[in-house]
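hey so i finally got around to running the thing on that chain from the lab meeting. sorry it took forever, my laptop kept dying and i had to restart like 3 times. anyway pasting the input first so we r on the same page abt which one it is
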Amino acid sequence: MDKRISVIMLLVMTVFIGFGIIIPVMPEVVAPRHLGWLLALYSLASLIMSPYWGALSERIGRKPVIMIGMFGFSVSFFVFGISLEHLWLLYVSRILGGLFSGAVTSVAVAYVSDITTEDNRTKGMGMIGMSIGFGFIFGPAVGGLLGAVSHSLPFFVSSSLALVTLFFTFTMLEESLDADRKPARRGANRLERKKAFAGPMKFLYALGFFVSFTLAGLESTLLYFEKEVFPITTRDFGLMLLISGVVGAAIQGGYVRRFVKKGDEGKVILAGLVLCAAGFYLLLMSANFLTATLYLCVFSAGNALLRPCVTSLITQKTKVSVGVASGLSSSMDSLGRIAGPLFGTGLFAIGADLPYLVSGSLCLAALGLLAGFYAQVRKERTAGGN
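ok and heres what got predicted. didnt touch it at all, straight out
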């Protein structure tokens, strides 16, 4: 593997570990509504700043912007670790983390686009997607296991990891942008983004939003919910997330990568939505650590089937460049991570069962998006045949 891709993967995974690392620790420190806002504001800051970081990288280069982002990301987590008794500082540091993480995630995608050809760009974007998935999976697990030692430890470790990746960036990552390269015209980019949502693609982007939305809603409420069922500790929760994360990674790296062929994605997405719905409903019947972990694995299996297949269909069916399609997919992912925690914690405040009842029903309702996509594809194919 190209060492530059390896460094970019490490950068992206570090950032997405940072997104989820607070999830198992914060229920011991703040009320559910604050956890929802801490997660949402981080993603919102990242989403808002990403276009500006991307534009800056066109002027001064990709590598300097990535390094700025990783340094700021490291500082934000150090501040978070020393601020657990000061709620307002937690908000400030989390917003800063989102602002600087946007520099890494948006410019990492642009970097991969720079160093790949049209023939292997989809594979490169797939590696970025895999890194995001691993970050989502292992961030909360790392937070839970380290948080059992000290509430501050996960954030100091995340800060240190960011500094290590900053070192690798400085020593191993070459600048990817040619000195004589001119930025794409903004008007052209806007037209391409508008074209990206045309036809059946809008259903796929909606599904991409849905995958992150349901996952973020689950993560922001699960420990609070399980605490009402049995005496779960931060360490127990970290183990639950780690086990379910390994199950998800095994499905993505094993079954999906080896056995899902082109044309099978729709069936796999259908199975993923049904498994996610089943996982939500089963979690309502959690009675102890074993059953809660088993039911979480059911959800994780469904989510692991959904994410790569939705991304694959987007890259296959898009009528614009893979870079634009991947950027839009990332934006939908961010929107899901903004809305999901607020949705989940808001429903939890009304009733502890509500996030899971509603989310399970939404999973089943999302089958309509899948049906809409294929109906539109058939309609375009018929029109093209005429």
